[in-house]
Amino acid sequence: MKKKIIGAAALSVFAVAAHAQSSVTLYGLIDTGIVYTNNQGGKSAWQEQSSMLSNEVWGLKGSEDLGNNLHAIFRLENGFNIQNGKTTYSNTIFGRQAYVGLQHDQYGTLTLGRQYDPVVDTLGPIALANNGDGNNLAAHPFDNDNVDDSFYIDNSVKYVSPTFHGLTGEALYGFSNTAGGFSDNRAYSFGLTYSIGPINLAAAYLQLNNGSLNGTGAVSSNDFVNFPAARQRVMGVGGNYTIGPAVVGLLWTHTLFDNTQPGANSVIQQPFDTLHFDNYEVNVHYAVTPVISLAGAYTFTQGAFSGATGSADPKWHQVTLMADYSLSKRTDVYVEGVYQHAYGAEGSAFEGAFINGLAQSSTGNQVAATIGMRTRF
């Protein structure tokens, strides 16, 4: 009997040790609230909506210690809408992220699957739209630069270097997976981050070639791509600086589209020969107390387009203000207001103001206000 007890104890210790070498974590976030908009298609609206600030997700992530500072890692992440229980991306289970790879403490991380591009990874944390848990209402018009991660890169391989003296680099390539069409719907991107002390700087580039959204390439028709194009290029630089309880950020992005055609999820149903956007953002976060925080941003977006219907230079001014109160480490409540003024493209599809996540205004002005709560697990 004594030997059995000792044997059982030894097995239990071994099981704990084996478990300590690997882990699987279930996680998620739920965000819902009431939104008022003064003008959506010419009418005011009161709506209960999800993900006005943070994308609602649940997922699994794991790591296995393979020895010699090497780990096998994976992530499977689903996006959903709590209002109706539907998935965000049709015909997918893990539409937000799905990848597997290897991570080495000294040599960096290599992953394969459906992933964020380096624009999202490096510039996203600087913008108000993607800082921390995110703020979708604060995205640049149409999320034209994908800083707010409207789409992901399928069939991609990504490498992230270890951090060396504050500098981290990453690169991604998304395969077309098309026989005889190597460049048809492929993507490549790279980014750099320098973070030391109170300073955080970043730069990134993304290019999509022949984005036909054919379902087998780098970008899928399930994604929220507003301007499917023969070629899309995004480049940007930015940084933020921490001063006591405040963090001040500056960001510039430049997006170029060639030969766009409206897709299934496009909000602008008009083709363009050329289309480009320059986004200039300044933002600030201020921790009033450990549980109360304030945030705000001003964005100026300057666009230009040409096509069969003519050309114009639309412009957008957008102001976002937000207050957040943490009820616990997992749960918070918030209130936010957004004002957008659009002009310079009267008579075109860009005539009305268009705050991200809402329907287009019938005028050049749109105001939205929301109160809601988020909880994480």
TrEMBL record:
CDD domains in alphabetical order: gram_neg_porins
Q: Which domain of life is it from?
A: Bacteria
Q: What is this protein called?
A: Porin
Tell me where in this chain the Porin domain is found.
8-340
Taxonomic source organism: Paraburkholderia edwinii
Q: Where in the cell is it found?
A: Cell outer membrane
Q: Where is the signal peptide?
A: 1-20
| PANTHER family, per the entry | MAJOR OUTER MEMBRANE PROTEIN P.IA (PTHR34501:SF9), PROTEIN YDDL-RELATED (PTHR34501)
Assembly and interactions?
Answer: Homotrimer.
Topology term for the membrane: Multi-pass membrane protein
Give the residue spans that cross the bilayer.
Answer: none
Q: Which Pfam families match?
A: Porin_4
**What taxonomic lineage is listed for the species of origin?**
Bacteria, Pseudomonadati, Pseudomonadota, Betaproteobacteria, Burkholderiales
Give UniProt keywords alphabetically.
Cell outer membrane, Ion transport, Membrane, Porin, Signal, Transmembrane, Transmembrane beta strand, Transport
Nuclease: present as a keyword of the record?
Answer: no
**Main location class:** membrane
